[in-house]
Amino acid sequence: MRMIGQRVTRQRVAIAELLEDVDEFRSAQQIHQMLQQRGQEIGLATVYRTLNAMAEQGHLEVFLQPTGEHTYLRCEPRAEHHHHLVCRTCGRTVDVAAPELEQLVESLASSHDFTDVEHSIDFLGTCRDCARA
């Protein structure tokens, strides 16, 4: 993950490498804890600043949990816009394409004379494994 516009520091590299291994949305606190478990001495404030900068540059997706907490996930670069199904229990995350939703957004924008509309819609539910538990 190339960090354009940011100095490449040991801390930023450690955070980027950790995010390569994470398949679910995680909070800054969780990422900080995971870094500590890997032996990385990085302050929580540095983790927050780095995650926010990476999100602004489009390297991370941000999901606002129902609790109001921001969580972060590195997504593979895609040509098409996509959404996520997120398990509220275990955090399992699945990328989903939703062309019907994209058509709805375009229709809503058009019917209200809006152009250049952006949106972020993710779905929160319970995965099959957690529902069985």
UniProtKB/TrEMBL annotation:
Keywords: Cytoplasm, DNA-binding, Metal-binding, Repressor, Transcription, Transcription regulation, Zinc
CDD domains registered for this protein in UniProt: Fur_like
UniProt organism field: Cellulomonas dongxiuzhuiae
Domain of life: Bacteria
Keyword Phosphoprotein (UniProt): no
InterPro entries for the chain: FUR, Fur_C, WH-like_DNA-bd_sf, WH_DNA-bd_sf
Family under the similarity heading: Belongs to the Fur family.
Compartment(s) where it occurs, according to its Swiss-Prot or TrEMBL record: Cytoplasm
Pfam families for the chain: FUR
Taxonomic lineage of the native organism: Bacteria, Bacillati, Actinomycetota, Actinomycetes, Micrococcales
The keyword Cytoplasm is assigned to this record: yes
Primary site of residence: cytoplasm
Subunit structure: Homodimer.
Name of the protein in question: Transcriptional repressor
Gene3D superfamilies to which the protein is assigned, alphabetical: 3.30.1490.190, Winged helix-like DNA-binding domain superfamily/Winged helix DNA-binding domain (1.10.10.10)
SUPFAM superfamilies xrefs: Winged helix' DNA-binding domain
